[in-house]
Design a protein that fits this description.
Blueprint (H helix, E strand, L loop, with lengths): L10 H40 L18 E15 L2 E9 L6 E4 L3 H4 L8 E7 L2 E7 L2 E4 L9 H26 L8 H26 L6 H19 L19
Antiparallel strand pairs: 1-2, 1-4, 2-3, 4-5, 5-6
Helix pairs in contact: 1-3, 3-4, 3-5, 4-5
């Protein structure tokens, strides 16, 4: 690539490339942690939980038990909590051998209005954490329960990797001046950043709902980003003037 002679960044503009390069390293580290740690650990945790059997009835409950145990608790308090337009239902449990404290029961419509301070509930406990709470012939899982949703970390890890590349390239553009007039923040980097973040979330949610294998998520996001980048660059290409057509002479092949 040749150095752009039409438009060069100023000294202060070049300095902006430094934090972009640092941001690129941060995004790369986040992507590595997500794809190499978060995703595998979530998969292993869900598989272990799905294969777990009930604890023997004649054993003493222990925090490290790798089995499902039904443990009685007392409700200290319970109620809805609002965050914008969404609501969740939380309960504080006590008098258990372990796992005492607040649990997030998610959907407020399942147990809302049914739990009161002093109620006795039966909790499903695994590895010292409350997985579900049952009371009044109702049962609600907690946010601690492992779920088969690896598509979301796969989407976020892929998006972080692509953002790392994007910030690395544009940071280099600002520092060196190469391609400065061709790649701009307003027309290319910012739309790609917002679209990549929003698009990855949408791909993650949709694939979770459809149960699509998580291995499909990264290629979909990469191909979508490559297509968007190609469209952004093509729209800035100058239009090729059409030559005047001579009667009887066919148009040249394009």
């Amino acid at each position: 690539m040749s150095i752009d002679t039409k438009r060069r960044p100023s000294f202060w503009t070049r300095l902006v490339g430094l934090p972009l390069l640092a941001l690129s390293l941060f995004m790369a580290a986040g992507s590595a942690l997500t794809l190499a740690d978060w995703l595998p650990s979530d998969l292993e945790r869900y598989r272990s939980y799905a294969a777990t059997a009930a604890c023997p009835a004649d054993t003493t409950p222990r925090r490290a038990d790798d089995c499902l145990r039904q443990v009685p608790y007392t409700v200290e308090r319970a109620g809805r909590e609002s965050a914008g337009k969404s609501q969740t239902y939380r309960a504080v449990l006590k008098d258990g051998p372990f796992g005492n404290g607040e649990v997030d029961l998610g959907n407020p419509d399942t147990l809302a209005g049914w739990l009161s301070p002093g109620d006795r509930v039966t909790a499903t406990v695994w590895r010292g954490e409350v997985m579900a709470v049952a009371a009044h012939d109702r049962r609600q899982t907690t946010e601690n329960e492992p779920r088969d949703e690896p598509q979301m970390p796969a989407a976020l890890g892929t998006a972080a990797a692509l953002l790392a590349v994007l910030f690395l390239v544009y940071g280099g553009v600002l520092l060196t001046g190469l391609g400065y007039s061709r790649i701009t923040w307003k027309r290319h980097v910012w739309p790609l950043t917002g679209g990549l973040f929003a698009g990855s979330l949408i791909v993650g949610f949709v694939t979770v709902l459809l149960g699509v294998p998580w291995q499909i998520v990264p290629p979909v996001i990469v191909l979508g980003t490559a297509g968007a980048l190609r469209l952004f660059l093509r729209r800035d290409e100058p239009a090729v003037p059409r030559s005047r057509r001579i009667p009887g002479v066919p148009d040249p092949a394009r």
